[in-house]
Amino acid sequence: MSARDLIQEALHSLEANKGRSLLTILGIVIGIASVIAMTSLIGGIQNSLVNSLGLNAARMVQIYSSQELTESDIEKLQKLVPQIEQIGIVDSAYTEYKTGDKSYTVMAQGVDSDMLDAVGASKLVAGRTYSQAESQSGSRVALISRNGADQLYGNEQDALGKTIKVSNGEVQIVGVIDGGSDSMGSLTLYMPRETISGLFGDENPSFPSVTALAAEGTDMDELCKTIESKVRAMKDIEEDEYDSVSATSMKSAIDALNSFMGAFSLIMGAVASISLLVGGIGIMNMMLTNVTERIREIGIRRALGASRRDITAQFLAESSALCVTGGLLGVLIGYLLAWGLAMFASGSGILGELGASGQITPSFSIATVLLAFAVSVGIGVIFGFYPARRAAKLDPVECLRYQ
Amino acid sequence: MRPVIDIRNVHRIFESEAGCAHILHNVSLAVDPGEFVAITGPSGSGKSTLMNILGCLDKPTAGDYYLQGLNVAELDDDELTEVRALSIGFVFQSFNLLPRLSVIENVMLPLAYTNVPRSQREMRAVHALQAVTLPVDHWDHRISELSGGQMQRVAIARALVNDPPIILADEPTGNLDSATGALVMETFHKLQKRGKTIVLITHDPSIAAEADRAMTIRDGRIHDGAYIPHAPRTLRSAVDSLPMISASTNPPKGVVA
User: Fold this and answer.
1) Do A13 and B84 make contact, defined as CB atoms within 8 angstroms?
2) From the candidates B15, B52, B57, which should be mutated to test the interface with A, based on the most A CB atoms within 10 A?
3) Range in A141-155, A316-330, B121-135 the model is least confident about
């Protein structure tokens, strides 16, 4: 029997038993759906976290000192530690912004154009970023987060070109970026540092924390220790002064996140495989019933020239078709579930707490779908094998006599 | 002429926990190509067991079976399957059509097992349905929409579709009234004219009378009508193969006189 004949036969007989088939594949549907929902959701959260941290998050070191660092301290540090490619100073200031009857807390972040990437503000949604020249001249330009643009102006396009009052001046919005961790009632604006000093009038600022970007391939843990000791030496801070100086890299945070997500996936996988096992046993049960119900048909087919192999193949095709249907339904329901959960989580702001940007898009990968497909076929073959063999081993004479 | 079916000294014994059942005793018979042979006998006489052996669905416990010169005992399961698929067409008393499939799908079913290309299947099924004179407008019907006579003609078409030289029919008119039964018998006669060898089991003497040769089997022994083309090789088998003398004290049950 050709593959096409087998598939046709299998679909025929599943159609004849629609209700029972649907109930039987429920276990497979639930198993596959939960795996798909969780993996795509986890993938989505991971993407969203990485997005909000920026592409270079793994190479970033957050340096904090209880005695604030001045610009000259920073220059010195950069010379002492050659692995530091760049040190970004993020200046920030808070101000109020009122529009209509609503008021927002505006956090103005002073980030020069070359550091936008490092703070995760490089993904443009609309407009443009500001240039090096604008950074140096202190132009009154700013980037707003997508969320902020939506809140103030309704959509991203409408935000472009608008001016917004910050402290004792105004800045013009030139671009909208994806990311930024705005919570309700607060807005983040990114603008050049020079602009911040112009607006807030701080001539010789010092900073409690700065961000360093390490060269590619640097041992981050080693670098953190080096930076810590250099800062202590520079600022004359004793070792035993607890937490007065710290340099932490995002790498360990990302590693921790990844291992957490990995463990979570493993648990989900275990739960799903139990569901698939139960589903598989259900399939075997239904196939055994199927064989018993169709003993006479098996006899007829054998008399008409079906070999044992043909009978085995027919029942295997049926159980595989059953499982593949379950698998595909599971994939579909899994993605729907992931979208639903993502929408719920985005709406409730749970992930804002985790530090992810507001929107999560469940990740869709063709590899996962193929894997689900392969697993379904595998279950169909494994759990369908015994009933199929049993059908094939029946004596045709007995089968034809069976009522 | 070499017989297509040549059974020599066949025994069939079923062993079960309840004991041994000796169903066929030293049965020998031969059927020439193109012959129409009827096997009659009361129920329980071993007709169906003989039919299963003839159809390669079952193997004799002892004795030889040569089908088209091939020693069936030497064939394995796959080879027997091939013989069933290509050399034999079965027609059953209860039709044994698959109710899920339409008329034409039922007829096409055996072609899937002989790897006939899909493009040729429908044409061959149409030829087979034409041969049994089933009206065209019935071809797409479900099996349940047909009358008994129509079902049996579909079953005959299915038996024909692989163009086997031998048709084995087990009580093909058993579930039909005499008028439709006659129609089915007419179909068999037509098939014989087309060169098919037909072995038909029946307990109806009037049906058996339509065949070239009728053979009676009783209590697992050939009673009369067996044509044995070869001489018995041993004295014992010569005695065994003699027709049984029907002077037994209990008359056999269910014999239609």
Assistant:
1) no
2) B57
3) A141-155
Scanning B91-120 for CB atoms below 8 A from A yields 92, 96, 98, 100-101, 109-110, 112-115, 118
Angstroms from B95 CA to nearest CA on chain A: 10
Find the CB nearest B90 among A5, A303, A310. A303
Q: Does ipTM come in above 0.90? A: no
pTM to 2 decimals? 0.70
Lowest mean pLDDT, pick from A160-169, B72-81, B115-124: A160-169
* CB half-sphere exposure, A181, CA atoms < 13 A: 17
User: Which residue of B lies nearest to A5 if distances are taken between CA atoms?
Assistant: B112
Rounded CA gap, A258 and A253, in Å?
9
Q: What confidence tier does A203 reach under pLDDT thresholds 50, 70, 90?
A: low
Q: What distance in Å separates residue A305's CA from the closest CA in chain B?
A: 4
Closest-CA residue of A relative to B105 is A9
Q: What is the pLDDT of residue A248?
A: 81
State mean pLDDT over B79-83: 93
What pLDDT does residue A101 have?
75
| Better-predicted residue by pLDDT, B174 or A296 | A296
Confidence (pLDDT) at B24:
92
Among the partner residues B77, B110, B162, nearest to A308 by beta-carbon distance: B77
Q: Residue A159 phi/psi, 5° resolution? A: -75, -25
Which residues in chain B have Cβ-Cβ distances shorter than 8 Å to A302? 57, 81, 84
The secondary element (H helix, E strand) that includes residue B202 is strand B197-202
Is B215 in a helix, a strand, or coil?
strand
What residues of B are in contact with residue A318 (Cβ under 8 Å)? none
Taken in order B111, A2, A291, B72, the sign of the CA dihedral is positive
| Percentage helix, strand, coil for chain B under 3-state DSSP, each rounded to 5 | 35, 25, 40
Residue contact B57–A303, C-beta within 8 A: yes
Which one of B15, B58, B100 would you mutate to disrupt binding with A, by most A Cβ within 10 Å of its Cβ? Answer: B100
Using the Cβ of B76 and the Cβ atoms of chain A, whether some distance falls under 8 Å is answered with no
Task: Give the CB-side neighbour count of residue B99, counting CA atoms within 13 A.
Answer: 6
Q: Please report the number of interchain residue pairs, chain A to chain B, with beta-carbon separation below 8 angstroms.
A: 62
Token pair, residue B239, equals 């005695």
Find the mean pLDDT for residues B94-112: 92
Q: What is the pLDDT of residue A130?
A: 85
